[in-house]
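DM from R.C. (forwarded with permission)

"hey, sorry to bug you on a friday — could you get me a structure for this? deadline for the figure draft is monday and I only need the backbone to look sensible"
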Amino acid sequence: VFRLTFKAQEATPAANTAPASKAIEPARRTLRGLRVLLTDDNAINRQVIKLFLAPQGCEITEATNGKEALDILAQGDFDILLLDVHMPVMDGLDATRAIRALPNYRSTPILAMTANAFNEDRAHCLEAGMNDFITKPVDPDKLYRALLTWLDKRH
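My reply, with the result:
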């Protein structure tokens, strides 16, 4: 058995550097104040998504499984939900079915996040009530585009 421990710090962009992503500037203007519930059992995956969304001004609340997400949804109001598909306690598909039964979240965009990119996986997500599908590792441009697309459809 061997254990590897490392500490990572969030990088601070230099003042003169151009954005690495073409979608960053439109995302920054549109995503500011967006209330996101980010549900993933993997802390590193949550950290990566936070590194993409926090600089855009998103307000991010984290959950580690579907049951925890449901508990959080009962106490707050969110604009969009990012759910990992495969999690312990309650997976993203079961969580989505339960979320769609909540009156305040019947039409809230739910985006699946998973490493399984097969058409069958996408179909299962859509059948459960998810709106879209983001593959891992998450590409920031694709994430921003998906968020902007579903936010536009809400209005």
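R.C.: lifesaver. The CA atoms of residues 38 and 82 lie 5 Å apart.
me: no worries. Strands lie at 35-39, 59-63, 80-84, 110-114, 132-135.
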